[in-house]
Design brief:
The protein contains eight helices and eleven strands. The chain is of the alpha/beta class and 240 residues long. One of its GO terms (molecular function) is phosphorelay response regulator activity.
Length: 240
């Protein structure tokens, strides 16, 4: 029988907190690994291949923000755990690819709820009733089942959240989506903390990665939200 337990890597140099989270998640049926620094975290990340990473910002051998950016090039979900509560750190964490940010100290039950919400979002990637396997627009191809984006015949590395956001907009084109709707669809409504700046940050990262600096694909409708502009003549559904 296939093992459906989720794997979580905990990266924190506070050993007491690290082991507390480890015991708590293990008790709640997660498979866990721990790492006290970035070097060990990189090794564990390759061998363990976690579904989610808890990552502190201040680590003894490197910054967790740099590690976040490295890990976010895969489909792993990343939750920053930090005592740094200044908005500049939070915004930079999202800009580096974090899926969530939880300030220390925190309640373990709330931590568990946030993790479950992220995995629910992962299990229900797109709320649209119709899932198109592939969407092709000029030189851009988005493949839902392979979770792959190809631009000019080259693979583009998006985080799991960035892919979900791009696919949702492309699969629901020519309609303006406000930030609250996008947060509800992509982040899961339980995760909406009222800060809609995270949408702008991720849209900016997607535009940069797909070469959309001039907003050719993702349009900003000022005062309303975002829209993926797509005409029927250049939308193609492909089968594997």
């Amino acid at each position: 029988m296939e093992n459906t337990q989720k794997k979580v890597l905990i990266v924190d140099d506070d050993l007491a907190l690290q082991h507390l989270i480890n015991r708590f998640l293990s008790y709640n049926n997660y498979i866990t690994e721990i790492a006290p620094n970035c070097a060990i975290a990189r090794q564990k990340f390759q061998s363990f291949q976690p579904d989610l990473v808890f990552l502190d910002i201040n680590l003894p051998d490197d910054t967790g923000l740099r590690l976040c950016e490295e890990m976010s090039k895969t489909n792993v979900m990343i939750v920053m755990l930090s005592s740094m509560t200044d908005s500049s750190y939070i915004l930079e964490a999202f800009a580096r690819g974090a899926d969530d940010y939880i300030a220390k100290p925190f309640d373990l039950q709330i931590l568990k709820a946030r993790v479950e919400a992220l995995f629910r979002r992962g299990a229900n990637k797109i709320t649209s009733p119709t899932i198109n396997n592939s969407i092709v627009l000029d030189n851009l191809k988005i493949n839902f089942y392979r979770r792959e984006v190809i631009l000019n015949n080259s693979s583009i590395l998006l985080t799991a959240l960035e892919f979900d956001l791009l696919y949702f907009l492309a699969n629901n084109p020519n309609r303006v989506w406000d930030r609250a709707e996008l947060i509800s669809a992509i982040w899961n409504k339980d995760d909406y903390d009222g800060d809609d700046r995270k949408v702008d940050i991720h849209i900016g990262r997607i535009r940069k990665k797909i070469g959309d600096a001039n907003s050719e694909f993702i349009k900003t409708v000022w005062g309303r939200g975002y829209m993926f502009e797509l005409s029927s003549c250049n939308k193609v559904k492909l089968a594997d």
